[in-house]
Automatic annotation (TrEMBL):
Record organism: Candidatus Magasanikbacteria bacterium GW2011_GWA2_46_17
HAMAP family cross-referenced by the UniProt entry: SSB (MF_00984)
Pfam family, any one: SSB
Renumbered residue ranges of the record's region Disordered: 109-129
Keywords: DNA-binding
Oligomeric form and interacting partners: Homotetramer.
Higher taxonomy: Bacteria, Candidatus Magasanikiibacteriota
GO molecular function: single-stranded DNA binding
A GO CC term assigned to this protein in UniProt: nucleoid
Single GO BP term: DNA replication
Name of this chain's protein: Single-stranded DNA-binding protein
Superkingdom of this protein's organism: Bacteria
Gene3D superfamilies: Nucleic acid-binding proteins
Signal sequence annotation: none
């Protein structure tokens, strides 16, 4: 058995971009930054940001487009996926992305830090998940080797 799972806790670097595919599905792309912070040998605080490209589909993409914006803190769960294509210059390119299937908004609407009464539906800390996957793709607890 294999497991492809990623969990991130970070901030959006820009507003999500929401589009509709020719087939009519909604897709949103966003970038989440996570920071590694440590103190070096000379006692100076060091920081290394890591940027994660995320893709969100269907209803969850609509929610992301409506409620998330640059600077919002989010927790995302999903799987890593690498896709490739040939660019206009003839060079083969690769992009590794997190395909998000679960998302928790960690601060108030539009980065306010508190919940607003004018924005019903999704609240800070509320988990928003993609529709369940088909039964054959589901991972059963008894199949996990640890």
């Amino acid at each position: 058995m294999d497991l492809n799972r990623i969990c991130l806790l970070g901030r959006l670097t820009r507003d999500p971009e929401v589009r509709t595919t020719p087939g009519g599905q909604t897709v949103a792309t966003m970038t989440v930054v996570t920071n590694l912070v440590w103190v070096d040998q000379s006692g100076n605080k060091q920081e290394k940001p890591e940027f994660h490209n995320c893709v969100v589909w269907r209803k969850l993409a609509e929610i992301v487009g409506q409620y998330l914006s640059k600077g919002r803190r989010v927790y995302v769960e999903g799987r890593l996926q690498t896709r490739d294509w040939v660019g206009q210059d003839g060079v083969k390119r690769y992009r590794t992305e997190v395909v998000v299937d679960n998302l928790i908004m960690l601060d108030g609407p539009r980065g306010s830090g508190s919940q607003s009464r004018e924005e019903p539906g999704v609240f800070a800390g509320e988990t928003v998940s993609a529709p369940p996957v088909a039964e054959s793709e589901e991972i059963k607890v008894e199949d996990i080797p640890f």
